[in-house]
Each structure stands twice: as structure tokens, then as C-alpha cells.
Amino acid sequence: MISRRQSRYLVKIISLFLLFSLSKLCPGQDYHYWSEQFGGEATMMGGAVIASGTDNSMVFYNPGRIGFINSNSISISANVYKVQMTKFRNALGQKNDVGYNRYAFYPQVLARMIPISKSSQWRLGVGLFTRYNSRLLFHEKIVTNYDALPSQPGNELFIGSTDYSNDFNEQWGMVSVAHQLNQSWSIGLSTIAAYRYQYYRSSSEGLSLVNDVSATLMSLKTSTDLLYVNWRLLWKFGLAWQQGRWKAGLTITTPTINLYGDADVQSEIVVGGLKALVPSSQIDNLIISDRQERKAIHYKHPLSIGFGLSYEAERYKIELATEYFFQISKYHILSSDPRITIYPAGALPLNDRYLPIVDVLGYNKPLLNISLGTRYKVSNTYSLYSSLRTDFNNYSNPEYLDDGINLWGREWDLYHLVIGGSRLKNNDMIHVGVEITAGMKSDLRMLSDYNSPVMANLLFSEAERKMKGTDLGFSLIIGYTYSFSK
To answer: Between 373 and which of 23, 48, 73, 346 could a Cys-Cys bridge form, CB atoms 3.0 to 4.6 Å apart?
Structure first.
């Protein structure tokens, strides 16, 4: 039986290894609420249409505006071509970068506006929106000779590898009802059914082999897999006002109500050859492993309040829009059932042999996004657009999120610039634009340091803040709206 002192030593190993491998190698979601925009005009305006939008995207942006829309139309828009280049510089040591270039095509929105009757002040809108869509993959392997085990003579062969893949998609199906109260006021309500799918896998491994006849080996391995689907309900209330050249809009989006969620999750941590690092240790190998299936998922989306103010002259329009997203306090996205996870028995001085290594935790900080969009009417047929919007990240990693899997993502803010134009002919409206996305943040904690891979440091030392995260993206966006004859 190992001593109490050695047990505390192992507890520190495991707790730090948990924090290192499960938190820092599991960027499981994208922490940006305004990455996607919907509809031709709304995308060109950077989402600054809460006050003045006139197309089917109002089902999403402000259902209150639907009361002022008399057309019977159908709209579709898509990212016809999108490339997003994400880079984690110095992620695994100085000049050891990881990254992923994503090339994608996917529809943004398919929506329809349906007047209930010619004389009625009630309007109906329906739409399907790609609310979130993200993919990130990378793999890196490094082989070097280094004194990874100072207790052993000479340098050892060190092999370090990191694998990561993450793919998630969230769709919002929306049905909106609006009522025009008078010439200046209209109200509306959207009911939203949200479906979210996510799969990610991350693994990290460090092997150190003594270069002599003893062939002493120490290994540190971790892997995590998560697959889940989640159905939720939420609502969006919209209020719209217009008077002369001025327009304003107010929206309130409720938090979500979870309907159904199902997840399979597994995680494993293996420490092998511990005596090579701690010769006095009586335990040479340790495994912490758990897999749980068909677990309930409770994913949260925050309460938010949006506001827009627009001024429209004969040839130009300008609108400022903003949306405040409230904080989501710490919660369990997934809670595991207690079961044996630690092998061998008695290896750690705990009340039982259970550690919550497959619990999934969430916490989002509050933020305020702002967008400024302009339109210039060249003629009755052609218009030009430009917009700039913020896309601040809501990621927060307080110290108390160390008792499970903390799904972190891009920790930096993004900024989106859109330039485009439109053509109106008869019943057809076409929007074409280019969106440029950029963001960066320095002084992030490295995932590991394979340049100086001392095994004890991998276990005990908190990674230095030398990593830099960057994003650069380009999208070609096309939107089409067809208005049926009245």
C-alpha cells in the first residue's frame, strides 16, 4: 500500500492531468452568437435590420416587423463558398502550431411570408435557419530526444501527439405570427424549435522511452469522446415602430426549454510507468476510465434583448442594431452517474473509486454585440450595401470549472465586414456579397510544450501563456427572394 504522502502526490497528478487534458484539449463549441446572419438583405446589413427589415428574415430578426410586410414571398440564401482559417500558434511549444482550414457550403435560411388575407392585419411567417455551424480538426505528432525523465540517465526518446475533431450544427425551425396595430406599431411572436447535433473527439499522448537495455517507458494518455443530440424550445417577441423616415425595433428572446437530449460520452486517462518519474512510488500504473450512454443533455441558450434604430432617406438607409446576451451561470450540460472509474482499487485516498470525468460543464459570460449597416440605392434596380459588426466571444473558464469536461472554444472576439449589392427586377430580388471575418488573441495558455517535454512538467506545470489564436475567413453569400403576384 502506498503512503499517504505518495497518495497525495498521485491525487495531484490526476487532478492536474484532468484539468490539462479534459479542459484544454476539448474546445467543444463555438462561443459566438453572431457568427451567422440570415437572408440576403440582412446579411448585407450585418444583421442591422431589427428596425427596418422588409424580407422573410424578419421571422428571425424581429417578428414584429412582419406586420408591416404585405408581400407573399419566399427567400433562400446560402454561403455559396466559405473558407475559414483557424490557427493556434505555439499551441504545442514555440513554433509548434496547429490549425485547420475549413471549406464549406451550406444554406443559411429558407423562409416564407404568408399574408392570412388581403384585408387582415395578421401575418404569418415560417423559416428554417442554420443558427450555428462549425467544424475544427487538427493533428500533430512530435518525435524528439530529450531528458524527459531526469531520474533516468541521459536523454530519452519522447513522442508527443495530439488529435482533435469537432463538428456541430444547430438548426432553428421558426413559425411567426404578427399583428399590425396601426400605421406606426406592430407586434409579433416567433416560436422556435431548435435541434443541435455535436460530435467531438480529442486525445493526447506523451511517451518517454529510456535509451538503454532497460527500455523503461513512461506514458501519459487521455482521450474523450462525446456525441449528442438535443431538442429545445424558445420564443422571440418582437415590437416594431415606424414614423416618417425613422424606424425602431425591440426583441426579447427567451432562454431555452429542453425537450429531449441524448448523449454518449466516454473518457479515459492512463498513467503508465509512474516509477520512472517517482522511483519511490509503489504504484506503477493507474487508469481512470468511464463510459456512459443514453445520458440526458441539457443545453442552454441565454436570454437576450435586441434593439435597432434606422433612418431612411430617398437614396440611403443606415441602421444601428445591438443585442445584449445575459450570463449563463455554471451548470451541468451532462451529469454522470457515480460508478467505479479508478483502477487499481485503493490507489487514491478518496471515499470511493469515482471521479466525474465525463461530466460536461457550461458557463457563458454576458456580452453586447453591435452592428452598423448601410444601403445606398443607385437606382430602382440596383442597391449597394456595407456593414460592420462585432461578434464578441462569451467563453468563460472560471477556476471552479475543473471538476469535469469544460467545453471551451475560440477565446477571441471576431469582427465581420460585409460588402455587397442587390438587383431587383419584376418579382425577383438577388443579393450578392462578400464577408470578411477576422479575430485574434494573444497570451493564451498552450495546450502543451513538446519542445521541453519533461514528464513532470507535463503533469505539474501549468502551461505558459504563449499561444496565439487567430481566425481569418472569407464567404461568398447569395440570397434570392421571389415575390408572388398579389
So the answer is: 48
- Under 8 Å between Cβ of 50 and 320: no
Distance CA 206, CA 450 (A): 9
Distance of alpha carbon 413 from alpha carbon 209, whole angstroms: 42
How far, in whole angstroms, is CA 75 from its chain's centroid? Answer: 27
Nearest to 323 by CA among 34, 63, 37, 57: 34
- CB atoms < 10 A from the CB of 58, how many? 34
Compute the distance between CA of residue 431 and CA of residue 300 in angstroms, rounded to an integer. 34
Domain containing 50: what range?
Answer: 4-484
Of 137, 138, 161, 164, nearest in space to 26 by CA: 164
Q: What is the pLDDT of residues 390-430, one digit of tens each?
A: 999 987 665 544 556 666 667 889 999 999 999 998 888 99
Q: Which three cell numbers stand for residue 308?
A: 435597432
Strand partners, 115: 123
| Cβ-based neighbour number of residue 165 at 10 Å | 16
Count of CB atoms within 10 A of residue 246's CB? 13
Residue pair 361/401 in contact by the 8 Å Cβ criterion: yes
Per-residue pLDDT tens digits for 75-100: 888 777 889 999 999 988 888 899 99
pTM: 0.89
pLDDT tens-digit map of 138-179: 899 989 888 887 777 788 888 989 898 888 899 999 999 999
pLDDT band at 128 (very low <50, low <70, confident <90, very high): very high
Q: Distance (Å, rounded) from C-alpha 161 to C-alpha 447?
A: 11
Locate 116 and state its grid cell.
392570412
Beta carbons within 10 angstroms of residue 23's beta carbon? 19
At 393, which CATH number? 2.40.160.60
Residue 413 near residue 392 (C-beta atoms within 8 A)? yes
Grouping H, G, I as helix, E, B as strand and the rest as coil, residue 351 is coil
SS3 20: helix
Could you tell me what percent of the chain has a pLDDT over 70? 86
Q: Which of 95, 49, 101 is nearest to 75 (CA)?
A: 49
Looking at the structure of the chain, the number of domains it has is 1
> 37-51, 207-221, 238-252 — which is least confidently predicted?
207-221
CA distance 164 to 270: 18
Within 13 Å, how many C-alpha atoms sit on residue 154's CB side?
A: 11
